[in-house]
Specification:
Elements: H1 3-28, H2 31-38, H3 42-48, H4 52-69, H5 81-95, H6 99-114, H7 119-127, H8 132-142, H9 151-166, H10 168-173, H11 180-198
InterPro entries: DNA-bd_HTH_TetR-type_CS, Homeodomain-like_sf, HTH-type_TetR-like_transc_reg, HTH_TetR, Tet_transcr_reg_TetR-rel_C_sf, TetR_C_Proteobacteria
Domain HTH tetR-type: 7-67
DNA-binding region: 30-49
């Protein structure tokens, strides 16, 4: 089997697993169902993933990487902090409006609460990577645009300003996804609160006038 064909089958299995886990949850999903959905043999599934737990873990990592990629912006010294942060957060909010992602996140959290041992490996792997917000904040500090703060703490605060409106209510309470107008309002408010507190110098927050 060529590498390209193997990669295609690997992705087909992941896609099938995501779809099946999303619809049925972890416990009701079988490797047989995933194989049938991916149109491959059960043996092929096990050749790629030795167990359902390993497959589930890779899906969780896939979710995290997609989330991190949505805010993986490089710091730009020539662009205002407000414009950069606004673009990052709006991109993040638009990503969090993806119903497939929210369904999988809901299922993943429910399963990890039920079986926290399944979270150990994924949490360790996540901690090995720096999130986009943290990297951006660190660069802004190095360029003396933000106060020297605990980067992880500040990044978590910023995540909270967004996810308290556009993730947790949808995942835990089934609330509607924020509209485009509401996502804009959330982003602007988060930018204002964050930069008012952490920017070294007063910054222009009216993006239309920058």
């Amino acid at each position: 089997m060529t590498l390209r064909l193997r990669d295609k089958k690997h992705q087909a299995i992941l896609d099938a697993a995501i779809d099946t886990f999303r619809q049925q949850g972890y416990e009701l999903t079988s490797m047989d169902q995933i194989a049938a959905t991916a149109n491959v043999s059960k043996r092929t599934v096990y050749n790629h993933f030795p167990s359902k737990e390993k497959l589930f873990a890779e899906i969780l990592m896939h979710l995290w990487e997609r989330s991190a990629a949505s805010i993986d912006f490089q710091y730009q010294p020539t662009v205002s902090l407000a414009k950069q942060l606004h673009a990052m957060l709006l991109n993040k909010l638009n990503f969090l409006a993806d119903t497939t992602f929210l369904d999988l996140a809901r299922m993943a959290m429910a399963e990890l609460i039920h079986r926290p041992d399944r979270a150990q490996e994924i949490v360790c792997r996540m901690n090995e990577k720096e999130g986009g917000l943290g990297g951006w904040i660190r660069s802004a500090i190095e360029h003396q645009q933000l106060k020297p703060v605990d980067v992880d703490f500040a990044a978590m605060q910023l995540e909270g300003l967004v996810k308290s409106f556009a993730f947790w209510p949808q995942v835990t309470m089934g609330q509607p996804i924020p509209t485009t107008e509401m996502r804009e309002k959330i982003a602007l408010s988060a930018v204002t609160m964050f930069l008012t507190h952490y920017a070294i110098s007063p910054v222009a927050l009216d993006l239309d006038q920058e």
